[in-house]
């Protein structure tokens, strides 16, 4: 790790400080200084994700907007936005950039009081945020995932019994503007069996041996004892054997629907219904805890799971009555090459909602740090190697997600139920940019920002107010 002095002084002073606090140098590089507070969403902000080159980040919210931000500018400015309510969505919940940073995958939830259905949209970042793909996604908390730069996974769920169901994973082409109806744009690839009311959730695609290796892992949360996700399932694939869409289709959509209708008629007449052939799960990691978030390390070798423990030796008699869960959240780490848990557990953050009301709290991982939100109105940053809590990041309500800039781990973004997006720099980064700070807040810059909202336009209209707003306050729209 490079050594930077965050205060004026000599090498001997740095040495003394290092002896007193071995993590002094590291703390100077921790993004713990709030340099910008953005008030652009009108409801709880659920997720934030960075592009792979660190030039942009996207935010999703219960106000039904997805917004894309220019992270290279300071202060950060909005580039694009889309009101997904116009597409029948209840709210946006998750997003991810493709590897070339040209497309943005957005996951959302459909309207309905007990809806489990969702939808995935792909936006083109090089063509004015135009939509070039949309597919069904059920259950919505599969979220979706990029398989490669031009293909993505979606899910579909159908019940096969009172407490059993089948979850199908589909591979979709990111651009579906094709002239020929016989060119496949989506293909069902894998089918997994769900038992005891559970379902596959939080799908992640990992390449733990590097991008040039044949090994591809499908990683997801699931369950066998209760409908609550308490296990991590891993399916091992070979890149050359993945059933990508795109080959000329043998049937048109009308032909496929006609065949399906004929099968239904035969089944109604007493004909034999073929058994479903499920794909196997190669590894199951049982956490004895409720899983509330999954994230990969930058090299995709390590999986980090946010979870809340069950009581020791908990007995589950009814799949729909899961055990109580701990108020202490812990992050566990797993090596995806060995399939073993790494002896690093990160603790400090807390949650209070019961099991049936529990929601996702997403983990952020960089080369040297691990971060997470919490329900106690704080985000937390740990030293990834030593498990030391380095800083807490204050909001006014639940912190749902944190994300490090992949190109600069000294920049972090947090989002919260307090409707805000907060940008954090390290002390070193503040010094390099000429920013002074008191405590955890920068001085002399417009930290509080209100963006003009025009729900009919995606045009950027950002107005930096000449005054600071207290946390929780809103400026009137201009």
Describe this structure in words.
This protein is mostly beta strands and about 475 residues long. It is built from four helices and 32 strands. Strands 26-27-28-1-31-32 form a six-stranded mixed β-sheet. Strands 2-3-4-5 form a four-stranded antiparallel β-sheet, with no helix packed on it. A hairpin with a 7-residue loop joins strand 7 (about 105-110) and strand 8 (about 120-125). Mean pLDDT is about 85; it is low at about 1-20 and about 445-478.
Number of helices: 4
Q: Rg, please?
A: 23 Å
User: What is the helix fraction of residues, given as a range?
Assistant: under 10%
Q: What coarse outline follows from CA principal-axis ratios?
A: globular
Summarize model confidence as the mean pLDDT: 85
Distance between the termini: 46 Å
Given helix and strand content, the structural type is mainly beta
- The biggest beta sheet, please? 6 strands, mixed
Indicate the proportion of strand residues: 35-45%
Instruction: Please state how the strands of the largest beta sheet are arranged side by side.
Output: 26-27-28-1-31-32
Name the poorly predicted regions.
1-20, 447-478
Beta-strand segment tally = 32
What is the quaternary state of this protein? single chain
């Amino acid at each position: 790790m490079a050594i930077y002095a965050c205060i004026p002084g000599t090498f001997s002073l740095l040495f003394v400080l290092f002896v007193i606090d071995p993590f002094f140098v590291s703390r100077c590089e921790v993004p713990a200084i709030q340099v910008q507070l953005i008030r652009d969403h009108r409801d709880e902000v659920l997720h934030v994700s960075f592009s792979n080159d660190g030039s942009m980040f996207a935010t999703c919210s219960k106000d039904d907007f997805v917004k894309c931000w220019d992270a290279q500018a300071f202060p950060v400015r909005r580039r694009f936005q889309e009101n997904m309510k116009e597409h029948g969505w209840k709210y946006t919940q998750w997003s991810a950039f493709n590897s070339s940073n040209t497309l943005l995958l957005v996951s959302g939830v459909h309207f309905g009081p007990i809806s489990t259905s969702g939808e995935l949209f792909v936006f083109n970042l090089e063509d004015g945020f135009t939509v070039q793909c949309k597919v069904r996604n059920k259950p919505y908390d599969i979220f979706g995932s990029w398989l490669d730069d031009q293909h993505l996974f979606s899910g579909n769920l159908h019940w096969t019994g009172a407490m059993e169901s089948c979850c199908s994973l589909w591979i979709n082409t990111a651009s579906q503007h094709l002239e020929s109806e016989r060119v496949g744009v989506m293909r069902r690839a894998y089918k997994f069996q769900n038992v005891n009311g559970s379902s596959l959730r939080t799908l992640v695609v990992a390449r733990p041996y590097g991008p040039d290796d044949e090994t591809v892992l499908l990683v997801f949360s699931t369950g066998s004892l209760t409908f609550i996700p308490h296990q991590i399932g891993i399916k091992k694939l070979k890149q050359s054997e993945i059933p990508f869409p795109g080959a000329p289709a043998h049937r048109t959509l009308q032909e496929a629907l006609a065949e399906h209708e004929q099968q239904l008629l035969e089944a109604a007449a007493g004909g034999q219904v073929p058994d479903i052939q499920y794909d196997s799960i190669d590894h199951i990691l049982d956490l004895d805890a409720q899983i509330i978030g999954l994230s990969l390390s930058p090299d995709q070798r390590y999986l980090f799971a946010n979870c809340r423990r069950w009581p020791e030796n908990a007995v589950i008699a009814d799949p729909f009555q899961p055990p109580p869960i701990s108020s202490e959240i812990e992050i566990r780490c797993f090596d995806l090459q060995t399939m073993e848990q790494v002896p690093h557990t990160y603790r400090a953050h807390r949650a209070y909602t019961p099991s049936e009301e529990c929601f996702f709290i997403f983990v952020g991982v960089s080369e040297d740090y691990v971060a997470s939100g919490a329900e106690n109105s704080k985000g937390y940053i740990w030293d990834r190697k030593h498990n030391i809590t380095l800083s807490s990041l204050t909001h006014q309500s639940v912190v749902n997600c944190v994300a490090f800039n992949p190109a600069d781990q000294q920049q972090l973004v947090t989002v919260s139920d307090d409707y805000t997006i907060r940008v954090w720099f390290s002390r070193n980064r503040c010094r390099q940019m000429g920013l002074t700070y008191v405590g955890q807040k920068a001085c002399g810059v417009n930290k509080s920002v209100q963006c003009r909202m025009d729900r009919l336009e995606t045009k950027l209209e950002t107005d930096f107010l000449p005054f600071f707003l207290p946390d929780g306050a809103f400026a009137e729209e201009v």
